[in-house]
Design brief:
Strand content: under 5%
Largest sheet: none
Number of strands: 0
Order of helices and strands: HHH
Structural class: mainly alpha
Radius of gyration: 11 Å
Helix content: 55-70%
């Protein structure tokens, strides 16, 4: 996930907070559209670590398994 955050910061000119929020919004969008049994695979594909600190204290992609 850190790689995606860095890419968003560099290529889109986002701050750290904006990049993290972008990933959170993206995850919520995608997770609403894929069956629960595929969500783990989507997490892996997005390069997201199993660590709630990555996206803050709101519902995060780590809350879904």
């Amino acid at each position: 996930m850190e790689e995606l955050i860095e890419k968003l910061k560099q290529e889109a000119g986002l701050t750290e907070e904006q990049a993290r929020k972008t990933l959170e919004v993206l995850w919520n969008y995608v997770s609403d559209r894929v069956p629960p049994f595929l969500q783990g695979q989507v997490k892996k594909m997005m390069g997201i670590m199993q660590n709630k600190e990555n996206l803050g204290s709101q519902q995060t992609i780590d809350d879904v398994d």
